[in-house]
Design brief:
The chain has about 290 residues and is of the alpha+beta class. It contains eight helices and 13 strands. Strands 1, 2, 3, 4, 5, 6, 7, 8, 9, 10, 11, 12 and 13 form a 13-stranded mixed sheet that branches.
Amino acid sequence: MSDPQTGTAVRYRRMTEQDLDAAHRLSLSVRWPHRLEDWAFIQRLGAGYVAENDEGLIGTALCWSHGTEFASIGMVIVAGAWQGKGIGRKLMAMVMAELGSRNVLLHATAAGRDLYARIGFQQIGEIHQHQGTVFKSPLMPLQPGERIRPLGSRDAAKLAALGARATGMPRATVMAALQDVAEGVVIDRYDEVIGCAMLRRFGHGYAIGPVIAPDIERAKALISHWTGTYGGAFLRIDVSGSSGLGPWLTELGLVQVDSVVAMVRGDAPLPDHGLRQFAIINQALG
């Protein structure tokens, strides 16, 4: 296709590792905080497509399969001067074709919400982005027999099981990759792992997520571990709108700065009612 005003040709192709520098610059141009390393992490886990013209990259869209039934889409970006010309719609069609008949999840900004609704996505919730610096972190008590300990090399299968139960989707691949770039802690109850929280470098500081726990009090205990360990650092955490954590996070110093809509095309996954994902890994991987 070409821009009807300038006649400049737009080409579409599969994304490669060589596109990461240009994709990173594109995301900075729309004020997304991702580092080049953040792009590399998510690109390795999935597939993507780009739009380009003679001047360079002008659009991206990535997707990730979570087993045979579910998938997610993210990093859908179109350069400002090229928005409203159908590029985002074309990129979405390409990643949707990549995913086949899977039920597809995404997090929509205000700019993309109408596009996704037109192609069959429906709202199923909200994600609230909190960020800031915590200088004093409360000590949150646990139940008798419970302790927070570092994630160990032998916990991989337990971590994958927690992720699957909390999201209703297979998460072994994502969780294993996350262990390579993040620090992790778990709530251990008599040698049974009942919750976890990860922290990694992201954007302007550190991101906490996922946070998986049976209830909000244990979720607070896991988050407090990281806000205490990284007191004075810039932290970000993306929590579900139904988490109930918003007022508490704000009191800590992690204020809500943005909100996106969680959407699905097809059937939403069914998490285990006894376990909740209070904070997501990030808005691309969920």
